[in-house]
Every structure is written in C-alpha cells, then in structure tokens.
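Methods: example folding runs. The two proteins below were folded one after another, and each record is reproduced exactly as written to the output file, sequence line first and structure-token line second.
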Amino acid sequence: MPITIPDNHPAAERLENENIFVMNGQRAIHQDIRPLKILILNLMPTKMETEVQLLRLLSNTPLQVDIEFLQAATHVSKNTSPEYLNLFYKSFDQVSGNKFDGFIITGAPVENMPFEAVDYWDELCMLMDWSRVNVYSTLHICWGAQAALYHHYGINKYPRQSKISGIYTHRPIVNNHPLMRGFDEIFYMPHSRYTEVRQSDIESCPDLEILAISDIAGVAISASKDGRQFFIQGHTEYDRLTLAKEYERDVKLGLNPDIPENYYPGNSPKAVPMMYWRSHANLLFSNWLNYYVYQQTPYDITAIH
C-alpha cells in the first residue's frame, strides 16, 4: 500500500524507481479509508537521504500512510537549503493543533554534547512533551532515543571509549512482544555512535522494558510498557552505503576512524558492503505501524490523548 507525500517531493521519483507505491494527494483523498498520519522530525544533516530511508520502510505495509516532515525552528541547517525546508517541512506552529497516529524522531550528530547544550534542546523537549498527548506512538532513533530517555525518564547517556560503528548481532529478549514478532533469534543492526545508555539504568525504571540487546552494542531496542514510546539505539533505516559515507567523511576530516566492524567484505573499504539487516528493518517498522499505530489509535484521531 502507498505512502502519501507532496506531489513534487524529490523522494517520489527514487521510491517509484524502486517499485514502491507513492500516491499523490489527489488520488489519496478518494480512498475510502482513514490513512495513518505520521509526523517525522528529521534532525539528520543529510535530510533528503534520511527521508528516502524512512519512507522506504514506512511504505512496506498494507496501510496508507500520510507523511508530514517537521523541522526544528530554533536550528539553522548547514546542509539543507532554506528553500527546500520551506517547501517540504513544517514548523511546530503549523502542526501543533493536529493529532498524529505516529511520530518519528531521528538521530542527530550532537551526541558528544550535553543535551542542554544542543541549540534546539528546549524546542525538542517541548515537542516530546507535546507528543505525549497528541501522538499515539513515538519511535525514537539513536540520539533521538537517548534524548527521549533522558527527558522523559532521567536516563543519561555515557561516552564510550571509542566510537561504535558497524553491523552487530542482536537478540530479542522479550520474544512475545508485538514489536519483535517474527524476529529471528539473532538479527543485525547498524550502529554509529560515540555514546550509550546503560542496561541497568533502563532496568531500574519500572515504566520501561528492554526488548533486544547486543553483546557489543549494548541495549538496542527498549520501550515504554504502554507501547506509546519506542527507543532504537541503532540505525535500521541505514542504506548499504551510509556507514561507508560516514567513514569516508571522517577520514577526510582527519579523525583517523576505525573501519566499521562487520561491514566491508575482507574489512577492505574498497569493497562493496553487504546489506544483511534489510529484512529486520522492514519487520521492525511494519510491526510498529501495525501493532502500535494502526491497531491502537482511534478511528477518530481527535480522540488521541
């Protein structure tokens, strides 16, 4: 089933070339169903790339999903033109009066900074508070997950001795949890971060549960027990070459990065990486949309509280 995005959005052509059903607004209004309304706060500097990655995963269900992109008004993007943002992104003032079935808050390359030092931190806190009563279920990714755990539950992040970058094995620890339904006993997920949250901190919070962990990457997926919030420490949405681009960027910056683990065949950056996390990425997003958005939100979206 389709996703609905603005008719002239540049992601549409890329997705259609991948045989993903993108519906234009005129056709969508004639569908005799209520589409799911998903809001995406895209904090990544590579906004267009992140848009395509998330839209690709959100499209892989039998549900019609209407997407709106949100920007932080208190942050000036260095990598995306104001014209692009004005055309495809909305400010909080433009969406604050609406209800949404789901909300996605992406990661951001600010994890080495204290939360309060991030220039849009106050605005993000306001958005996270707003989401508690205006969104049914929120999916937080990487730094977005760390920010939400800190803001909502007082769980801090801690610096790692070195950046974790690569593809790591994980295992579900709550096998009957709907978000993990259909997952293999071992699954893969990309990680790219300098910080982590500690398993003991999450386990000490009675409102949270850990759903999947990695012996190397640590806590991978956790959730509020009411299903209204999910926290993904990795990047299931990453494309085949996303880690490669990050590695090449860091090399050019003179950061002397380690080669991403379990990524390049033969550990050679000249080799084309294998992509072996795609199926579980699709399963994660489809389970979230099905079990925690579609099956839980009221048909009258204004009844969300």
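Second run, written to the same file directly after the first:
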Amino acid sequence: MAILIDSETRVVCQGMTGWAGTHHTAAMIEYGTKVVAGVTPAKGGRFHLGAPVFDSVAAAAKETGANASMVFVPPAQASAAIIEAVEAEIALVVAITERVPVLDMIRVRHALAGSKTRLIGPNSQGILSPGLCKMGVMATGSERPGSVGIISRSASLTSEVIAQVTAAGLGQSTTVGVGGDPVHGLSMRDCLELFLADPKTEGIVLIGEIGGEEEQEAADYIASVRPAMPIVGLVVGLHAPAERRMGHAGALTMHGRDRADAKIAAFEKAGITVASSPHLVGDTIGRALAARAKAA
C-alpha cells in the first residue's frame, strides 16, 4: 500500500507549459501518473502533452476531477500558486520550487491552516509510490514496490537509499522528499504518522541533514509512541562548517541542536537505529527487519 498517492491520483500540473514543467510532466506521464490537466494563466483552452490547459486550478479541478497538484512555478510566484491550489481544495500539493521566500511560505502556512490540503515541499524532489504514481522529479529505475517507507531531506541520498533498499530485496511502499527549504509543508513527523498507520509498510528510513530541528521532532515522536516497526536513521553533515549553507536553503547550522551530531544523538536516544554511513542504509534496514521477523 502507498501513502498520499496511488494509481487513482489525478494530477494537475501548475506551470506545465514551461520548459521544466514540460520536461518533468512528460516523465511523470511516461511513468504512468494520471496527469489530467495543466494550469497556465492566459493559456487556457490549449492542449499540452495531450492534456487540456486551464487558466486556474479551480477550473481544472472542476472539469477533470483533479485531486493533486504538481507545482512547477518560479520562486517569486510559487507561494501564490500553492495558495491557489489550497483555495481550490486540492487534497495534495507537491512543490519542487527551491528557495521560495520565507515570508511567502509563512503566508502559505496560514492558508494551509484548517484547509483540506496537504503540502509537500517546496524544494522537494517529490513523492514516489513504485509502479503506481510519481509526482515530482525523483529519479526512477531502481525503485521497486515493497515494504519500506522512506522520508528524506536529501534528493541525491534518496536515490542512493532507494537503490540499496531494492538491492536488499525489500522495495519501497512510498518515498517522500519533505523538502530542503527552512519552511515547508509535511514534516518528517507527519510522514512518520502516515507510515506507521499504513499496514503494508513494515520499516521506515529517515534521511536527515544539518539545519533546523525536524529530526529532533521526529525522534521525540518516536520516543513517545515507541512503535514496533523498525526505523533506521541517517544524518549527513557531521563535518559541515557552522554558519555556512550547504546546498539546501535549510541546511545551515546556527546553534547546537541543528548540528548533525545532535540529531544523531536524538535518534539514538529515541531507539532509532542509526546507519553509520550512507552506503550502509540498505543493509541496516534489512538486518532490522530480519531481526524483527525472527523475534516474531
């Protein structure tokens, strides 16, 4: 079983007619995702990649039954695009746009409060349920349907971990890129709750990095619920210099709790098994699941 998306997800792509939107939407369609419409203001009435284009998300949803939106919109306009999807009551919005202004994302947070919408991103590589649906720019080819849920802040490490989990014969239920910007939608903790409630997910991998306290919040949640499901964590950036942004807008160490070593300590205290190196994640979750099966 997948979380958030499946084979019946109907996607509208905001900004589909631009270069990035065209390229990545075509890849989503090729994967099998049901892209039912595009949205580009002043281009309504056209067709692009075989799908009708509308001037607004509300019109697209009304005509096509779209229940998810993929946002391919530049940073200055991204928050308005997300809020438009929220106001159209789209259930799931995935935003890949990087470095959306923080004040703009505060406005998005206010729009999300009490709404029917879940937001992934911005600065997310997307979400992937193998063989069912792909929303975003996540690399494909090594993914396989399986029982491991993956939650990640890092796009490149996501691809590596997916390949390792597949090589271990486990496969993935769903992989979620929560986003690397400092203010974003669904958190690691939010995704943990969804995976722990999914009967087909048997193990979880958390991929963290420096910056913020999202990993500590996830660890606090795990410590409070003490799930039987094996959870493996990886945190990168042990040698990252302080007060220097490392790639993602949110990967910035400013004080003690946002350092990699503090996050690792929080994982270990919560009972999360920490992989000592990125290349050991697949083996670590494989051994954790095998030990659980043996104990049962």
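Comment on the second run: The longest helix spans residues 281-295.
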